[in-house]
Amino acid sequence: MSTIYILWLRQIKRYLRSRARIIGSLGQPLLFLVALGFGFGPIYQKAGGGNYIDFLAPGIISMSILFTAMFSGIEIIWDRQFGFLKETLVAPVSRFKIMIGRTLGGATVAILQGVIVFVISLFIGFHPNNLALFPLSLVFMFLIALLFTAFGTAIASILEDMQGFQLIMNFVLMPIFFLSGALFPLQGMPKSLVMVASLNPLSYGVDGLRGTLVNGSHFGLFTDFMVLGVVTLVIMIIGSYLFSKIQV
Amino acid sequence: MIKVENLVKKFGNFVAVDKVSFNVEKGQIFAFLGPNGAGKTTTIKILTTLLRPSSGKVLLNGKDPVRDQYDVRCSFGIVFQDPSLDEELTAFENMEFHGVLYKVPKEIRRARIEQLLKFVELWDRKDELVKNFSGGMKRRLEVARGLIHHPKILFLDEPTLGLDPQTRNHIWNYIKEMSREEGMTVFFTTHYMEEAERAAQQVAVIDKGKIIAQGTPEELKKKTKTKSLEDAFLNLTGHSIREQEVSAVERLRSFRRGRRH
Q: What is the pLDDT of residue B48?
C-alpha cells in the first residue's frame, strides 16, 4: 500500500509544482470552448441542436482528461531518460504496484484537470442540467482518466525514445479525440464514421459525461459505463504486462 | 557474497559478457575495471536484476537474481552510472521515496535520512529541488540514497565521475568505514585507476566481455611489472581507444537537449 501511495504522491507533487504546465494545458480546451462554442453555436442552434456550448463542454472536458492522462502515462519515457525509472525498478517492490501507483497518480491529475475545465466552462456559458448527477460524472471522468493513463503507460513501455511520439500524437491521440463525438452528435453521421466512433472507447466516456451533465446520452449510461469499465480493465492488464517487461 | 560463474550475455549476435567468473567475499571492496564498452555496466545490470543473463550462474548473498528477484533486491544498494534522481522532487523527498520503497520504518527512516544528508553535507538544502543541484551534489545525494536501507552489497557504477578530489575522498572514506563497521560488500567500477588502487582490495579487469586479469592491485602490478595500477591496466588492455555504441537513452538525451536550444 505504501508503495502505491508514494508513487501516487510523487505524480501529484510533480503536477502541483509545474504551474506552467497546468496553465499551459488549459489553453487548448479554453480555445476550443470559445472558438468552436461561439463559432458553431449559431449554426448548431439553427439546425435545431439547441445550445452548442452545452453539447460541447462535456466533450472538451473529456479532451483535457484524455490529453493529460495520456501524457502522464507517456512520462515514463522521461523517467527512463532521467534514469529515475531504474531506481524504482531495482527496488524490492512488484512492478504491478509501481504501475498501479503511477497510473492512479496520473489519473488523479487528469481528473483535477477535467474539473478545472468544467469550472471554466461554467463561466463561458455551460449550463449543466442536473448537478445531482455530478458524482456520476466524476465516475466517468475517473474511468476516462484511468483508461488513458494506462494506455499511455502501455505505449511508453514499448517506445524506447521520443522518436515515435509524433506518430502517437497524430495517428492515435488525435483520431481518438476527433472521432469520439466530442465535437459533434453521432446521430445522422455516415454509417462508417458511427462505426469507428462506436469502436472508440472515448466515445463512451464523452457520452457518459454528456449523459450525466446535460442528458441526451447516445448509447445509454449503462452501456457507457460497462464498455468503459471493461476496456479500462483490459488496458490496465495489458499496460501492467508491458510495463513488467521493460528492460533498462 | 557475490558469486559469478561462466556468465554470458548476448544481444543478438553481439556477446557483451563472455564467460565471466569471479568471487567477491563478504566485506570486501572489489573494483571491476575495463575500458569503455568492456561489459562492466552490463554485468552490473545482470547482478542487480535489471537484465537477464543468457547463461551462467549468479548468486548474490546466496540468491539468484533471476529466480529470487525480491530477496536479491532487498540485499543491495546501487549508485548508477547515469543520474537517477527525480529532479522535480526535493533532496529529502528523493530520500523519503527510496526509504518507503525499501520499507524502512518511518522513525528509522527519518533518523537515517538526517544522518546521511548531514554526512554528505546536503542537510541544509534538503528542501530544495534536485534540479537546482550541481553535478557533485546530485552524486552525493545518490550515494546517500543508496545507503538508506543498510544494504549488504553496494554497487557503485563510476560513482565519482565529475567529482572534485575533496568530495571523492570524503565519499570513499565513508564507504570504507561502512564496509569495515557493517561488513558491507562494495562492488565498484571506475576509470580512475588511482582510486581503484587506493580503495580496492581485489581487482578484476574485463575487456571485450572477458576477464583478463584478477587479483590484488599489488599482484596485478607485479604480474605486469609496472609501478602503478594505471600502467598495469594499459599493459593488460592495450592503448587503442574504444568506440561505444550510443544507447537509446543517450540518443534521447541529445534529442531533448536539441529541443531545448
A: 93
Say yes or no for a CB contact (<8 Å) between A84 and B85.
yes
Grid coordinates representing B248 are 537509446
Supply the DSSP string of B224-235, one letter for each residue. Answer: HT-SSHHHHHHH
CATH assignment of the domain containing B215: 3.40.50.300
Q: Identify the band that residue A10 occupies on the pLDDT scale cut at 50, 70 and 90.
A: very high
Chain A: give the shortest CA distance to residue B217, in Å.
31
The answer, yes or no, to whether residue A99 has pLDDT greater than 80, is: yes
C-alpha to C-alpha distance for A86 and A248, rounded to whole angstroms: 7
- What is the DSSP-derived secondary structure letter of residue A32? I
For residue A142, give the H/E element and its range. Answer: helix A134-158
What DSSP character marks residue B124? G
Q: Answer yes or no: are the C-beta atoms of B20 and B39 closer than 8 Å.
A: yes
| A81 interface with B at CB cutoff 8 Å | yes
| Cα–Cα distance for residue pair B138/B103, rounded to 1 Å | 23
Q: What is the mean pLDDT of residues A137-151?
A: 96
Contact across the interface for A80 and B78, Cβ inside 8 Å: no
Q: Write out the three cell numbers for B118.
A: 548531514
* d(CA B225, nearest CA chain A) in Å: 40
Length of chain A: 248
CA–CA dist B205, B186 (Å, integer): 16
Which pTM does this prediction carry? Answer: 0.86
Task: Select the residue from A86, A98, A160, A165 to test the B interface by mutation, using most B Cβ atoms within 10 A.
Answer: A86
- Strand-pair partners of B186: B29, B154
Spatial CB neighbours of A30, under 8 Å, sequence gap ≥ 6: A120
Q: Provide the H-helix boundaries in chain B.
A: 40-47, 69-75, 91-101, 106-119, 135-147, 165-182, 193-199, 217-224, 229-237, 248-260
Residue A229 CA to residue A205 CA, distance in Å, equals 10
Domain total for chain B? 1
Q: Which domain holds residue B220?
A: 2-260
Show residues of chain A in contact with B100, CB under 8 Å: 2-3, 5-6
Residue-by-residue pLDDT tens, chain B, 261 positions: 899 999 999 998 899 999 999 999 999 999 999 988 888 989 999 999 988 999 999 999 999 999 999 999 999 999 998 889 999 999 999 999 999 999 999 999 999 999 999 988 899 999 999 999 988 899 899 999 999 999 999 999 988 887 888 888 888 988 998 899 889 999 999 988 888 999 999 999 999 899 999 999 989 888 888 888 888 888 888 877 776 655 555 555 555 444 444
Residues A149 and A100: their CA atoms lie apart, in Å, by: 10
Q: CB contact, 8 Å: B97 with chain A?
A: yes
Contact map slice: B 112-141 vs A, CB within 8 A: 129
Query: A10–B98: do the CB atoms touch at under 8 Å?
Result: no
pLDDT tens digits along A101-111: 999 999 999 99
